[in-house]
Specification:
The protein is of the alpha+beta class. It has helices spanning 2-18, 24-46, 49-68, 72-92, 94-106, 109-114, 128-143, 159-162, 174-181, 220-231, 260-271, 277-294; strands at residues 148-152, 166-171, 191-195, 198-204, 235-239, 246-250, 253-255. It has a 7-stranded mixed beta sheet, with helices on both faces.
Length: 295
């Protein structure tokens, strides 16, 4: 009996030491912190902060390696520059931080908590119909030399630039795009931003690129298209008012005089959130099937 009693006391002491004493307020604090970090991660994902975060991670890894290798001079420089970097981050992201604080002020936090969606996003950013309408509208406008600037949003939300324009929030159609960019209409000047299957804003102002390698013959539309592609992961379609040619800006690069098939392929590639892996897999499967058929 003494042995059994000793074992029970030992197990009880072990459980009391291993299991923390959790109060209801501790659970509330954990939920608050979890929600706080959830919204921070969503904000990072939907703004340019994600690209900055990746750059910061590279720098952090560099300084970790410097610490392991005892590079004292590099570590000293990093320590002195830390406060400057923090101030620089605040300055660079002042618009996003301001918008985030304004959003918090307007949001019903209790309602947001119960309506949070933790599920996976849809596989497609926009439908096949939107791809068709974008291509048809672009070449219809190119045929009559109507200038256009269409920004197709991907992962990074362009809220900062959306606020510079006029809200539209309409389903994207060929007729809508042609009407927006028709000469001498109120919305024809500036860019439109496409999010999913909808045109969210028109007459938006975009940053101009400082790339001196671009041809001097290119106008403001092309420079704005390259500029927005340098600060986000968007794809921008440009219809030239002088030549009617279609160009696409992506990742800071401008592709000129695209055919309908090439523009459709570019839009289809970014349509899938897996970065075009599904499209490439389908193409590879089709090629293998064709080769087997020939054999």
């Amino acid at each position: 009996m003494d042995t059994v009693t000793n074992i029970k006391e030992w197990v009880t002491d072990l459980l009391e030491g291993a299991v923390p004493n959790i109060h209801p307020m501790d659970v509330v604090e954990i939920l608050i912190i979890a929600i706080f970090f959830y919204y921070i991660l969503v904000w990072i994902k939907n703004t340019r902060a994600w690209m900055l975060l990746r750059g910061i991670l590279v720098i952090v890894i560099f300084f970790i390696i410097a610490g392991v290798l005892q590079m004292s001079t590099i570590l000293w420089l990093g320590d002195k520059l830390l406060s400057v970097v923090i101030v620089a981050i605040v300055v660079v992201f002042q618009p996003e931080l301001r918008h985030a604080l304004e959003t918090i002020g307007r949001t019903n936090l209790l309602k947001s908590f119960f309506t949070m969606s933790f599920g996976k996003n849809r596989d497609d950013r926009f439908s096949d119909k939107t791809v068709t309408e974008l291509v048809r509208a672009s070449y219809d406008m190119g045929g009559v030399k109507t200038g256009a600037l269409i920004v197709v949003e991907k992962e990074v939300q362009l809220t900062e630039y959306e606020r510079t324009g006029i809200p539209v929030d309409a389903i994207l159609t060929r007729q809508l795009l042609i009407n927006i960019f028709e000469k001498n209409t109120p919305l024809h000047d500036g860019a439109i931003i496409v999010r999913g299957d909808r045109v969210v804003a028109a007459t938006c102002y975009l940053p101009l690129t400082d790339d001196l390698a671009l041809s001097k013959d290119l106008g403001t539309r092309h420079r704005a298209a390259v500029g927005i592609s340098e600060v986000s992961d968007s794809l921008t379609i440009v219809v030239s008012e002088e030549t009617g040619m279609i160009s696409v800006a992506e990742n800071g690069k401008l592709s000129h005089d695209l055919s309908e098939e090439e523009l459709t392929e570019r839009l289809t590639r970014i349509q899938h959130r897996d970065g075009g892996k599904s499209l490439r897999a389908a193409e590879n499967t089709a090629e293998e099937t064709g080769e087997e058929g020939k054999q």
